[in-house]
Amino acid sequence: MSRLDFYRSLATPSDRRILFMVLDGLGGLPHPETGLTELETARTPTLDGLAGRGETGLTTPVLPGVTPGSGPAHIALFGYDPVEHQVGRGVLAALGVAADLRPGDVAARINFCTLDGDGNVTDRRAGRIGDEIGRPLAGRLDAMVDPDGVEIAVRHVKQYRACVVFRGAGLEGKVADTDSQQTGVPPLAPASLQAGSERTAQIAQGFVERALAELSDQEAANGVLLRGFDGYVPLPSMEHLYCLDAAAVAAYPMYLGVARLAGMEAHGVADDPEAMVAKVLEMGSKDFVFLHYKSTDSRGEDGDFNAKVAEIEKADGVLARLVEEFDVVMVTGDHSTPSSMRAHSWHPVPLLVASADCRANGGQGFGERSCVQGALGRVRSDEIMPLVLAHARRLKKFGA
After folding, report:
1. Residues 293-342: pLDDT tens digits?
2. pLDDT in tens, 334-385
3. Segments making up each domain of the chain, as ranges
């Protein structure tokens, strides 16, 4: 019996509601002047109060020493083994914008890019064009006729990002990115990474060539880079596994994509605390609400310590307005994004679970160092879901 099948055998309904709040990139490293991380520096009365009456610990997103991307980090949070269930960014992007994905389809993420007269990439993000340019360009690519008899759909995602879905017989998703992540060189040709994906690579090459012709009148976005090819294989839903009527609230499409992959009802909102609170409060009939807060990660990647502190404080304010609506509250990050590193890192992430069934931590607050001493100890991210389900009285006893 697989681990997921085991959880399914124990899952049972309950009237206890769960708030599953993810502060993207929450974990950090100490500031050289104060010795405090961004989370330890922030004023977080709500998180500290929950930590005092709840239980804390540290979570490892994948395995010790492994720096995760946002996709696998979130897949793990919902209880799926991120190594076993590897999902390409193209599939998540397509699901994030509610594209019509069916088993057997192959999806890839598109970056509009800028090419010079010799076909070399000068800007991998086309000057960060906005939605007002990216959306109609995606529409133009979607309208192109495919001569290979394969259905191709292009959908705008955000700013300079879009996605493409290939549908047809005999398609496999193991195709290399065309983005070398360098400038001054031409895009790479789509290449099959394993037997069976040759046709997909050939079709992708034809798509790129037609896209270049279609975009030839553009100054900035006159080329495309394809990334994250993968075939769509649905995951077993959270309703099927955990008996949960689950919803997601997020501002960025990729996180809506992960939520849809797990069978959640996904709701996009503006990247604004007021909008987040209002939408979560609309979900009063849902057993489980996943709330994604992105800006903590963005400010960490900017390398702005103080701005990340400010975003953590805003997130604490959001939580303050929601906490009384739920019986179980879980707060963590998908990974650490220390502002000193300007990138995701492998460092364990603070974790908090609060319910009526906790062994209270006391007055330690919520931060990296206090969580080292917490009652939960060290857990893997894919172990958080069963822990939360137990606090919601949603797992039956195992055995006699």
Report:
1. 999 999 999 999 999 999 999 999 999 999 999 999 999 999 999 999 99
2. 999 999 999 999 999 999 999 999 987 766 799 999 999 999 999 999 999 9
3. 3-86+235-391, 91-231
Within 8 A by CB and 6+ apart from 261, the residues are: 75, 87, 91, 92, 95, 234, 235
pLDDT grade, residue 1 (50/70/90)?
confident
Class of domain 3-86+235-391: alpha beta
Q: Is residue 39 within 8 Å of residue 312, measured between CB atoms?
A: yes
